[in-house]
């Protein structure tokens, strides 16, 4: 299992979701691509369609382009996998070497998912106001990813408090900024809200990205996201509600590579000369030199002193110390000045 244990390392979740289109074999194929792309987890969505959506629940606007019916329950039924399928997928992920996660979307599925003892319990954006579900999640005492799409700040804080009152310490909650649209307009990613939630409420933060491309996800990492979740698909043109807002495997790999590069660029808090800079330091800096012939005993003044590369001589920061002193030897033009 490729799970990040390094401090400050970003956890990357490849959200397969329902992009398997109800096919176990497609789901397994996607798992392999998640691993090859460098993700830490492959994640799915577990639900019983008839328990998740009522007969009158309509399909979302973004779902209409890939589904001819009007009832959400019918769409969900076509994308549903069984509990045995998920047990198979969990074992498959372990064999491939990638972490397995799945989001429960109804009470029956929650009981099943909680029994899998996963590294994270994901609370979907649609359950931010689901008090009974949040209570059950909090009682598990597991690490929680709380997605916040279509939520106001006070709703997110209320959800955090329900989790806490159910026994979950805030230190185990990671709040994910999210925009509930597929694809989401990048100008509505609102990554600063992620930063503010972390500062204001003392929680770890991350980003569940539904925008096109990788820019928002990489930017979120630079702003302090500890978790990135992004949809992956075999082909963005496949029929299904989430494919258009997903990355294809080669794109997902490029995103992970960019995230890891951002991590490398973080460095540490101390400003110092790096090993890569050592050889360049004296080449680009300057030393104090004579701008004209200065005879021994002559007084150093601003007019007969200047600065030029390389910087392996007397630092120009010492120029005030030289002014008014007498030269202890004769200097030719461009010759570096030495202290006596």
Give an overview in words.
The protein is of the alpha/beta class and 340 residues long. It folds into two domains: 11-266, Aldolase class I (TIM Barrel), CATH 3.20.20; 274-340, Alpha-Beta Complex (Type Iii Antifreeze Protein Isoform Hplc 12), CATH 3.90.1210. The protein has helices at residues 24-37, 49-52, 72-78, 83-96, 107-114, 131-139, 153-165, 191-201, 215-222, 249-266, 278-284, 319-322, and strands spanning 11-17, 41-46, 99-104, 121-123, 144-147, 173-178, 204-209, 227-231, 287-290, 305-308. The strands form two sheets. Strands 3-2-1-8-7-6-5-4 form an eight-stranded parallel sheet. Helix 7 (153-165) links the parallel strand 5 and strand 6. It is elongated and about 100 Å long.
Lateral arrangement of strands in the main beta sheet: 3-2-1-8-7-6-5-4
List the helices and strands in order: EHEHHHEHEHEHEHEHEHHEEH
Total number of distinct structural domains: 2
Radius of gyration: 29 Å
Strand content: 15-25%
Count of individual beta strands: 10
Topology of this protein?
Blueprint: E1 11-17, H1 24-37, E2 41-46, H2 49-52, H3 72-78, H4 83-96, E3 99-104, H5 107-114, E4 121-123, H6 131-139, E5 144-147, H7 153-165, E6 173-178, H8 191-201, E7 204-209, H9 215-222, E8 227-231, H10 249-266, H11 278-284, E9 287-290, E10 305-308, H12 319-322
Parallel strand pairs: 1-2, 1-8, 2-3, 4-5, 5-6, 6-7, 7-8
Antiparallel strand pairs: 9-10
Helix pairs in contact: 1-4, 1-10, 6-7, 9-10
């Amino acid at each position: 299992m490729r799970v990040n244990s390094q401090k400050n390392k970003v956890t990357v979740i490849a959200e397969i979701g329902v992009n398997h289109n109800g096919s176990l074999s497609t789901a397994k194929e996607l798992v392999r691509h998640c691993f090859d792309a460098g993700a830490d987890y492959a994640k799915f969505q577990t639900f019983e369609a008839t328990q998740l959506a009522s007969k009158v629940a309509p399909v979302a606007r973004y779902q209409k382009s890939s589904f001819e019916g009007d009832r959400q329950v019918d769409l969900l039924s076509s994308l549903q996998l069984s509990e045995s399928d998920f047990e198979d997928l969990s074992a498959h992920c372990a064999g491939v070497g990638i972490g397995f996660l799945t989001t429960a979307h109804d009470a029956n599925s929650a009981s099943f998912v909680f029994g899998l003892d996963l590294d994270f319990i994901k609370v979907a954006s649609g359950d931010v106001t689901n008090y009974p579900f949040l209570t059950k999640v909090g009682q598990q005492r597991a690490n929680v990813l709380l997605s916040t799409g279509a939520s106001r700040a006070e709703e997110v804080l209320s959800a955090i408090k329900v989790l806490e009152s159910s026994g979950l310490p805030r230190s185990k909650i990671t709040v994910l900024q999210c925009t509930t649209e597929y694809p989401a307009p990048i100008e509505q990613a609102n990554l600063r809200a992620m930063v503010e939630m972390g500062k204001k409420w003392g929680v770890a933060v991350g980003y569940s990205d539904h925008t096109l491309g990788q820019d928002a996800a990489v930017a979120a990492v630079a702003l302090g996201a500890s978790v990135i979740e992004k949809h992956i698909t075999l082909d963005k043109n496949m029929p299904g509600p989430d494919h258009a807002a997903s990355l294809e495997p080669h794109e997902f790999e490029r995103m992970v590579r960019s995230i890891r590069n951002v991590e490398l660029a973080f460095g540490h808090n101390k400003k110092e000369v790096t090993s890569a800079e050592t050889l360049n330091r004296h080449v680009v800096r300057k030393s104090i030199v004579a701008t004209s012939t200065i005879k021994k005993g002559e007084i150093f003044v601003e007019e007969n002193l200047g600065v030029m590369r390389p910087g392996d001589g007397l630092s120009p920061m010492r120029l005030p110390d030289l002014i008014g002193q007498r030269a202890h030897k004769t200097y030719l033009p461009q010759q570096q000045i030495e202290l006596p």
